[in-house]
Amino acid sequence: MPNQPGRLDSVCVYCGSSNDADPEFLEAAYEVGAEIARAGMRFVYGGGGVGLMGASARGAHDARGKVLGIIPDFLRGREQPFDDVETVIVSSMHERKMMMFERSDAFVVLPGGIGTLEEIVELLSWQRLGLHEKPVVFYNPRGFWDPLFELFEHTIRERLSPPDFAKAWRSVDKVEDVVPAIRSMSVVRDADAVHPDTARLT
Asked: Which of 15, 93, 166, 197 is the most buried (most CB within 10 A)?
């Protein structure tokens, strides 16, 4: 069942799956997962046990949080899902992304590669189209996401995105600020109390 508008029970985390990631990023991913779990929120992610994806899920699990992984069948061998967390096997990347979206009330973006970029750009596009109002928070250690933010600002300067696009997300550079940022964005968005019909995404 999709989550109800206005609730903040589940947080989806997008991030990289490369095991070659900076150890500092891996450690931070673990702590972000733990912070989400300690806040009493279910941790939703792409289901793999590798890279930042695996580190963040392990952090949530070790903090005794609820964890839901969603992974396509063809990626199970490559991304090595954990045996001790709830995992849903789906048939395609599209189904994975839709289920991650539907099962989550907010989104956190950690450092990642092209797959993470694809996921977050699609999510922000849906937001611009009025298909959802769920909070989006970037964890931005060492300015990792600054080049992406500059690209977003460039589209605004060139009048290809509206000025208020800059309000579509929030960026924090400390792990301990991630959950408060999610909560503060949720309060702001719920103040307008307009919740679009996400059935149009299917």
From this structure: 15
Show the tokens assigned to 56: 């963040």
88 forms beta bridges with 70
The domains of the chain are located at 10-190
Distance of CA 191 to the CA centre of its chain: 22
Phi, psi of 69 (to 5 degrees): -105, 140
Say how many residues make up the chain. Answer: 202
Which residue type does 60 have? A
Q: pTM for the complete prediction?
A: 0.90
What would the pLDDT profile of 98-130 be if each residue is shown by its tens digit? 999 999 999 999 999 999 999 999 999 999 999
Question: What's the topology of domain 10-190?
Answer: Rossmann fold (3.40.50)
Map tokens 């450092």 to a residue. 111
